[in-house]
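Internal ticket - ligand job 260, NAP:
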Amino acid sequence: MQSTPNTPENPATKTKFSQRNDGKIALVTGANGGIGKEIARQMLNSGMTVYVGSRDRRRGQAAIDELGGGARLLVLDVTDANSVAAAAERVAELNILVNNAGISDFGQPPTETEVHTFRRVYETNVFGVAAVTNAFLPALRRSAHPRIVNVSSGTGSLTWSTAPNPQFDYRMGGAGAAYRSSKATLNALTIYYAQALAAHGSFKVNALAPGLRATNLNSRAAEHGGDPAEAAAQAVRLSLLPADGPTGGFFSWDGTVAAW
Ligand SMILES: NC(=O)c1ccc[n+]([C@@H]2O[C@H](COP(=O)([O-])OP(=O)(O)OC[C@H]3O[C@@H](n4cnc5c(N)ncnc54)[C@H](OP(=O)(O)O)[C@@H]3O)[C@@H](O)[C@H]2O)c1
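stdout (structure tokens):
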């Protein structure tokens, strides 16, 4: 299902988002900053209406003021059931959901990670995605071509953490265990959501590995990360996949297939 080859024919790489997308309605969670704000900006530039999810009204409003156009503030804390339900009440129609909101851990191996850190990270990166996706499914089902993009991480790749040619191997000593395992779980959920929604033939559900980006996620990202807009561009492509595009896949920011 996920093994779409990385060729020029791969719809995950060839979709042009310089096209106009007027009439499409998207929700990006955690869009008041970082990669999410860049996703919202690019969607807005192509004519979409974008619900800018923000757990903090003030930070969300600041983003709206900056983004302008068809940006709509949607106060949404993905860890708060009441907030999720209230936000879903406000959105009757939705074409695209980008589960972008995420938090980091303290970079520790599992042996030094307190259970409450696992819980805190999973609340946002895993349970928050399930809560938001399920709450907005009724609105997505009203769309002819619904798309869900889960912003995951290459550090959650089990293949890239093991052989062959691991990028994140034993030399890291299992660092970032809470965060990385939360993203591995998100990858699993991406497959299961794609499978569950396959009966509603037009759904596409894919995960994105955005690469290291200069955001507020953690100090390493802030100091060594590249342009968040570059990662946002691939999120937008995945949100606009054509009917013959992949579902249940995991893609890097450059459109190549990422290893699970
Ligand atoms: N930056 C990287 O190098 C990198 C690499 C791989 C994957 N990612 C993933 O990319 C996504 C975006 O992160 P980022 O790098 O752009 O980091 P960021 O600048 O810290 O942005 C994260 C966004 O998520 C929001 N958020 C956090 N908890 C939330 C909650 N409970 N409810 C709603 N929103 C919440 C934040 O809101 P506040 O402003 O209120 O905190 C912020 O808007 C995350 O899923 C992250 O794991 C990032």
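Auto-summary: The longest helix spans residues 115-141. The chain has one domain: 11-252.
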